[in-house]
Design goal:
This protein has 129 residues and is an alpha+beta fold. The chain folds into 2 domains: 66 residues, Ribosomal Protein S8, Chain: A, domain 1; 55 residues, 2-Layer Sandwich (Dna Ligase, domain 1). The chain is 26% helix and 34% strand. β8 and β9 form a beta hairpin. The longest helix is centred in the first third of the chain and has 14 residues.
């Protein structure tokens, strides 16, 4: 697999398209940090690591508001073929603040609001709204 983050995004989008309650994603520390950031910003209900080393997974409980998915759209910004970096002062708001961008900084994975507040730039992984 060349882009595990895009795979994670697609699994979440597909699960919400058919109104699944949970989605299982193959474990990696990067995906786990991304899921923790989504939980912190209240886009998902919960996450849990399960299994042993070869078959380790992350189980994410998806969030719905009145049977509508909390996540209405996800767009991958930085890809393996074209990395997109931004300084803290140049990070733009997603959907006038209704959405969020997830940024990989030297201090870890964080939301665009947190990156602007802490004055950390980095690679813009994806946008969510």
């Amino acid at each position: 697999m060349t882009d595990p983050i895009a795979d994670m995004i697609n699994r979440i989008k597909n699960a919400q398209a058919v109104s699944k309650k949970t989605v299982k994603i193959p474990y990696s520390s990067l995906k786990h940090e991304i899921a923790k950031a989504l939980k912190k910003e209240n886009w998902i209900l919960s996450l849990e690591k399960k299994g042993k080393i070869p078959n380790k997974i992350i189980e994410i409980e998806l969030k719905y508001d009145d049977n509508e998915p909390a996540i209405s759209g996800i767009k991958r910004v930085s890809t393996p073929g074209q990395r997109i970096y931004s300084q803290a002062t140049d990070i733009k708001r997603v959907r006038s603040g209704a959405g969020m961008a997830l940024i990989s900084t030297s201090k870890g994975i964080m939301s665009d609001k947190e990156a602007r507040f802490k004055k950390n730039g980095g690679e813009i992984l994806f946008q969510i709204w």
